[in-house]
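Re: How this chain folds, sequence and tokenised backbone to follow
Notation: Tokens come from a learned vocabulary of local backbone shapes, not from coordinates.
Start of record: The labelled sequence and token lines come straight after this line.
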Amino acid sequence: MQNFEGKTAVITGAASGIGLALAERAAEARMNVVLADIEEKALEHAVQRIEARQVRAIGVPSNTMIEESVREVAERAIDEFGKVHLVCNNAGVASTVNAGKPVWEIPDRDWDWVMGVNFYGVLYGIRAFVPHMLEHGESAHIVNTASLAALLPGGGTYGVSKHGVLALTEGLQRDFADRGANINASVEESLARIKPVIRDAKAAGCAVRGYVSTAFGCPYDGDVEPAAGARVARTLLDAGADEVSLADTIGVAVPRDVEAVLDACEAMGIPLDAIALHFHDTRGTALANVHTGMRRGITTFDSSAGGLGGCPFAPGATGNLPTEDLVYFLDQMEIESGVSLDGIARASLAVAEALGRPLVSRAHVAWAAWATR
């Protein structure tokens, strides 16, 4: 959705915190705003705050643990504004009374409360609004607040609820795709959305690095023409990006491909000192690709500690080139990187132990063998 003006946003947990910030951002975009929250007094003040921005706003008291209460929010929004285009399922709580206890010692009342608000509140929001959005057929968005807790292990009731929100959202995306809903954007549409972000970041004094994913091969379309990634890089640089990283997201590139993409960049007038390279080591070619890039003057390469990582939309893709492998290579080539192999190896070991995942770096395996002698 490119133009938000005159469209309608519904935000739960809107009386404070992230929810209120979302409501203010919607008002800034000149949307009609429906604020829902269980705290009625705070909700009243939040509505006044949004109305002060000269947009239409209503407040609906709601307990997201109760499905009928969420449906009432949907009914009020539709009655007042006709169509809903943005739903932010944001209401959330965290129990501190039993924080730190093992999950088997946390009482049912805590599980019921936290899961009821954080997980079922999102599910009820999806049930209440998705059929309406599919029926009106206009561009629309659903935003489910999960927080960093959705990506980290542990966290008791809160962490479990947020992992559930993430899984639910991923399932929703698949359901949309299976039903032919248009959930994607063209390259041109994506670039149109990115340009204002670059502009605002530069205005705020931030350095901007752009990324071109699947610049060497795509899990859906297969081979990618070298000029395709170069065109996107050119657009990002013209929009104000300081640097663009070209990514072999699924790890299919070989040195010949790197040469071809860099040739395409130069043909479009892109200085190679504005280009970084990002190689996944899925097929063991990342270091060879780095060497090719170095010979062309590239000096910035992405890597990951121990080779940890992967790609959420490319089944089978491994992590980036391991930092240890890259640093060992540079050390042996007498190229100063400013990174200690011993230091990064020890750091990677700590990360691997925390995540419970093995390291795939060959240089790290060799380092560990020497370090334990």
